Amino acid sequence: MRKYIILLMVLVLGCRPPVGHQEEYDLVIYGGTSAGIVAAVQAVRMEKSVLVVNPGTHIGGLTTGGLGQTDIGNKQVIGGISREFYRRIRDYYEDTLHWEWETRADYRDGGQTRTLQGEDAMWTFEPKAAMRVFNDLITEYGIPIIRNQRISLQEGVVKENGKIKALRLESGRLIRGKMFMDATYEGDLMAVSGVSYTTGREAVSEYGESLNGVQTKMAVHHQFEQDIDPYVVPGDTASGLLPGIFEDPGEEGSGDRKVQAYCFRMCLTDVPENRILLRRPGPYNEQEYELLFRALEQGYSGPFFIMSMMPNRKTDANNNGCFSSDFIGRNYEYPEGDYKKRGEIIRAHRNYQLGLLWTLANHPRVPEEIRAEWQQWGLPADEFTDNGHWTPQLYIREARRMVSDFVMTQHHCTQESASARQSVGMGAYTMDSHHVQRYVNEQGFVKNEGDVQVGGFSPYPIEYRSIIPKREECTNLLVPVCLSATHIAFGSIRMEPVFMVLAQSAATAACLAINEHVTLQDLDYMTLRERLIGDEQVLSFRK
Q: What is the pLDDT of residue 119?
């Protein structure tokens, strides 16, 4: 009884347990992302004690952070609590009170909202709608969440004989558990636990993939079509390159530690009554937009963003075109950076995108008709009210990736020469990487490199062993987000509904392993499979 009183104190009061109390839970989840919340719900449903430790204030990750245009491909493979989330989104918008700035009949989403006749889910939504659904789940299941508590990057775990015994926070607080889960986009718990991981791109030769490594020839999308001079003073190599441009992209197909570009998914609105007009951000470096100006002066007229419409005249605005919201080449230090370095990178991305929006709407080097178009857009007054109406969640498309006994590769996505046998969920999205770098080509002009978009394959299973470490490294840690996959395979897997699916499966494995008194590596897969199917997870697909 005392244990549950303490849980209630943490949930309701956000306070620390009494001095001298030894906290211990069945499952400790680090990261309040969409994956982390779903995993916690599943643990409670399986009658286990759970605690979510969130390094920041914001919960729900990208799903509540502006990514309302749900990317997945074939939505038939989304089951379990993940699909339940999107059903709840549908229920939210069935209420006419939630249509404040337009009517439901007027809403046009480009065909993304419901993809099958009579579908029971809705796949486009406002950030606050997603937050409402997650908060409802947290309340219904009494999920305790500790916010603004980060693990120590030096000594973040207490570990004995290959098992994590406790998570150590920067404050010195210890949280013990039987099982642990890293549900972050960065993989910090995984890293401090001594689990093998990688960052960047593998060479094509490492796993026999054709789409990995440096890809200049493949990078035809979101590309500069005009001949844009890359130098500060056009034609003068001695003046140096403009920001973010390399002289040499590297050998075709070679590996590197560079990371595909990040951005914020922007929630904008053109409703005057709900619109906050944009101002030029304090740190504004005009040179960051010089490539844009030169493209415009050669006749480029866009696109500048993908403006996917969400309910109530809001957007999920994403990268599109040769020069857009992706801050290409400015995130290489993020995956393994300390908290200070990551904070600097996040602020730089925010300033860049706010500066880009202001530039399109106001700068005299932007054609008048383009300025007139972008002057219609601003930040919604009813979103992210605790963060200046701007999303707090940077789109970490890729950071650390675990290297376990099973690495998901291009071959597992296409299923042409390999297939996962112990499915814990399915991927269904194009193998997709955003650009990784800008470089000077042989003709002396700037080009983008790294964009890969290859689809046309059926949904594929994701292997159980790709979400757990090697036995010799850790026996009680699950990693459903920074899972074991190559750069290009991860580019297909890395979708929010899939992360939720994998997190539910991971939590299920943790609970079953506790029940059976076995390690995660020794858990009987057929036992896991039976429970997953019973919980309406989709583990296979036939056309």
A: 81
List the one residue out of 375, 382, 389 whose CA is nearest residue 312.
382
pTM for this entry? 0.94
| Token pair for 526 | 């057929």
Strand partners, 379: 276
367 CB-contact burial (10 Å; exposed 0-12 / middle 13-18 / buried 19+): middle
Does residue 11 surpass a pLDDT of 50?
no
**Rounded Cα–Cα distance for residues 292 and 230 (Å):** 11
Alpha helices per DSSP H over 363-403: 368-374
Query: How far is the C-alpha of 334 from the C-alpha of 381, rounded, in Å?
Result: 30
Residue whose structure tokens are 């979103």: 383
State the pairing for strand pair 305-310/275-276: unpaired
Question: Rounded mean pLDDT of 506-517?
Answer: 98
Q: Are strands 460-463 and 477-478 parallel, antiparallel or unpaired?
A: unpaired
Instruction: Report the distance separating Cα 267 and Cα 141, nearest Å.
Output: 29
Q: What is the pLDDT of residue 19?
A: 35
Alpha helices in 367-433 (DSSP H): 368-374, 410-414
CA atoms within 13 A on the CB side of 25: 29
Burial of 420: CB neighbours in 10 Å, binned 0-12, 13-18, 19+: buried
At 310 the three-state DSSP class reads strand
Q: Which amino acid is at 184?
A: T
pLDDT mean over 187-200: 98
pLDDT at 543: 72
> Residue 249, SS3?
coil
Cα separation of 146 and 169, whole Å? 11
- 368 exposure class (CB count in 10 Å sphere: 0-12, 13-18, 19+): exposed
Distances (CA, A) of 370 to 290, 367, 375: 16, 5, 9
Q: At 327, phi and psi to the nearest 5?
A: -95, 80
For residue 144, whether the previous peptide bond is cis, meaning omega lies within 30 degrees of 0, is: no
Phi and psi based region of residue 264 (left: phi greater than 0; alpha: psi -120 to 50; beta: remaining): beta
Q: For tokens 């080097």, name the residue.
A: 365
Nearest to 502 by CA among 82, 144, 76, 131: 82
**Among candidates 362, 263, 397, which has minimal Cα distance to 317?**
263
Residue 318: count of CB within 10 angstroms of its CB = 22
* CA dist., res. 406 & res. 469, Å (int): 9
* 10, pLDDT greater than 50: no
Task: For residue 288, give the DSSP letter.
Answer: G
User: How is residue 335 written in tokens?
Assistant: 């995956």
What is the distance, to the nearest Å, from the Cα of residue 400 to the centroid of all Cα atoms in its chain? 12
Domains annotated for the chain, with CATH where assigned, are 23-199+456-534 (3.50.50.60)
